[in-house]
Amino acid sequence: MPTSHRHQIAILGLGGIGSAAFHELSRRGIDVIGIDRERPPHELGSSHGQSRIFRVAYFEHPDYVPLAIRARERWVEIEANDSRRVFIPTGGAWVGKEDGRHVGDSRMAADLHGLRYDMLDGSETTKRWPALRVPDGQVCFHEPDAGVVCPEHAIRHFLENGEEHGGRVLCGQTIKSVRPEDDGVRILLERDEIIAEKVICALGPWTDDLVRTPDVELQPTRQLLGWTRPSNPMSLREGRLPVWLFADDDETIQYGFPLCDRLPGSSGAKVARHYQLEACDPDTVDRVIGEADEAFLTRELETRIPAAAGPLIDARVCMYTMSRDEHFVIDRHPDHDRVIMACGFSGHGFKFAPAIGEGLADIALEGKSRLSMNFLSSARFKHE
Ligand SMILES: Cc1cc2nc3c(=O)[nH]c(=O)nc-3n(C[C@H](O)[C@H](O)[C@H](O)COP(=O)(O)OP(=O)(O)OC[C@H]3O[C@@H](n4cnc5c(N)ncnc54)[C@H](O)[C@@H]3O)c2cc1C
């Protein structure tokens, strides 16, 4: 018989989202347990690879802006209270067509919410950041409040600080089943059983294995991160280059980061693409980087940011969990009041982690959040 333990709230999955919820609930003095089969941070899910873009002028939808503003306040606080680098305010330069999605819609979100930004032409951009080359017919939207979040350092902060506040972390056991019952939710692990009054499900690409939500379709996809040996590292250093992004013709994105000291992992220049790559099974995803992957990551660097162009010296596979409309799903499960879902982060969730942690804690404790997150409810899929 497995040993049974009772807790007020259990968090299933301790990637960026689950660990942030764990941290927030512990800070509020709640009896919380966080469960993961790995020992986060790890490289098998969605929350690894040294850096994530943080931005506020949200081209995906202006409704995310208040959440991003709150997340930024929290990242700044966390950074001030941790000796590791968690948040680096580098600013961001988004290059594309003036009326295209990444420039035009960022600008719209910024105007709507009164955010600071500058619009620069090609020569103004290169004067300010000599590494960047704006293609003819394109412009640069500069967002001073953008920056870099380090996912590994953030997760360590959330878990260690959460434990200091009394939360319990249980790693190294796979969750086998989750059964909502009248008096609580029964979580069966390999060796233990946990019974919790409420459960927050933050299982990333594995969500559907354990808790499905009617009407919500989730699709994990294989994604790539790479590091080049840059031809001119000096011009890529933090302070001389913001986080950068170039819109491709099909409105997908190539992006990268300045060279920042004291981040984990490779010392090369990090480059990536935000792109809907092939669907995958999270248990069997191909983690080997092939020649086509290398070419895909480094394509166009020579013309856009020649200082970052160079041989690929390191690369990793990571996973997105796409929802149908590419927006998050943060909501109580429609059939099980004790289960709260946090999934479908569609490749853009990490920047919001501390704000989402607060929102999830509110929903678990009070039924709804003070933060404006209603637009992320699963009800939007019901009548599609
Ligand atoms: C290449 C790439 C680039 C990205 N860039 C950005 C960016 O620039 N900005 C941004 O904001 N976001 C970005 N994202 C998105 C962001 O990183 C994700 O939205 C976020 O990390 C999702 O975290 P998660 O906690 O939902 O999932 P995960 O990190 O995958 O966590 C899920 C956890 O659940 C655990 N688990 C699963 N099943 C079980 C089980 N049965 N038993 C026990 N434990 C289990 C796993 O071990 C894992 O630790 C990027 C993502 C990728 C892949």
Can you tell me about this structure?
By secondary structure, the chain is an alpha+beta fold. It folds into two domains: 3-47 and 152-217 and 325-381, FAD/NAD(P)-binding domain, CATH 3.50.50.60; 91-147 and 219-322, D-Amino Acid Oxidase, subunit A, domain 2 (D-Amino Acid Oxidase, Chain A, domain 2), CATH 3.30.9. The protein is built from nine helices and 19 strands. The strands form three sheets. Strands 1, 2, 9, 10, 11, 12, 18 and 19 form an eight-stranded mixed β-sheet that branches. Strand 11 (184-189) and strand 12 form a beta hairpin. The N and C termini lie far apart (45 Å). The model has no long low-confidence stretch (mean pLDDT 96). Flavin-adenine dinucleotide binds next to helix 1, strand 2, strand 3, strand 13 and strand 17.
Task: Sum this structure up briefly.
By secondary structure, the protein is α+β, with helices and mostly antiparallel strands. The protein has helices spanning 16-27, 65-80, 101-113, 122-128, 151-164, 207-210, 291-298, 301-304, 353-366, and strands at 3-12, 32-36, 52-54, 87-88, 92-96, 118-120, 139-143, 147-149, 168-171, 175-181, 184-189, 192-201, 219-228, 243-247, 253-256, 269-274, 312-322, 329-332, 339-343.
